[in-house]
């Protein structure tokens, strides 16, 4: 009797989500609807493009070209892999294939009409592709957000099996659990034959040994199997497994022991049939160069001018409430451990620091930045200022002075830095930011370890595109007020 037969009853049999099978069809129907809508707009809107001849009747030509264009458009996307199940849900591959297929069709249409001397309205052509390509991308973006929302609520899940050593299994499982929008539901694990444990340290049930992978996949109705470190003994064993499950619609994923590294730093290059993963160095140095500094100066100046009326309103509310100082200055640690005076609108009572020790004892504070909901030290104007992060606007002056950046790790207190280990000290390699991954990922709702992880990810994987993305998401985080207290 194998280990699998003993533990088979532990597998909770559940039919994989059938709705996932219809995801490519849903995407195709969505694309078709977008194309029809854009086609109507292109026909009606061409009359307003004065640069082209709009007097010609195009009804006859569109009856022929319209269906052919839409059929060809869908065909190009399909041939380019835009409807493959593995492109949905994550990454930019889906959008790249969509755009490339659309540009290919536009090129073929233009060249084909020229060679065949077919009179196609130029206004219709420009509008159809000029509006159609971004509309298709936005449609897929909406579909992806709907998919992520459903997965966060437990729908459209894929049953996952992880093969490898117990430590590697728990490492992969923690990442999958941390990102529920991926839709991976871990149902069990496979360990090497020498490991007789019934479950991993994090509580994942062991359903068999790695050499029983094919049998477990069939019995447990697995959709995806992850091979982590220790999952296979040789390349031939992996190849044999892929052959054995090729008719069972099982997705095979090799998960190397690499986490918190952005896709921009990873290059996979096959050499003699062996895929080698190249990891570029961290980009912390790039985050300190002149380009980011120029962006900070221009951005902070523009925002100070734009928010000047809000500065005045906030200052008046604070002063009229209790007559205390408008600004609160606190020593924070900046790049390379340099101290600076961090500016904020005062949101607490004037003796807030005196009350802090008592609150530490009451709340069991031990590490990180102290935050609590319903903090009794916060004033009435302070609650309004904090709700929309208006209290942090004076930090634009810190950005202008060079103490901070618009985007970066959260500025730590000196007592926090005193307790840093070697890894956490990497947060100080770049200027702290007014906003960052911590701001758009939950703010004060985050645990200390999760906040550190996000800051280190930012430092090691900095890019200007990521900064722009974070700034855009900050608006949503501020208006939702999630984690703001």
UniProtKB/TrEMBL annotation:
TM spans (from-to): 20-44, 64-83, 95-117, 123-143, 294-316
Report how it sits in the membrane.
Answer: Multi-pass membrane protein
Superkingdom assignment = Bacteria
Keyword Transferase assigned to the entry: answer is yes
- Major subcellular location class: membrane
Q: Where is the Bacterial sugar transferase domain?
A: 292-479
Which compartment or compartments is the protein found in?
Answer: Membrane
What is the similarity comment for this entry? Belongs to the bacterial sugar transferase family.
* Official protein name in the record: Exopolysaccharide biosynthesis polyprenyl glycosylphosphotransferase
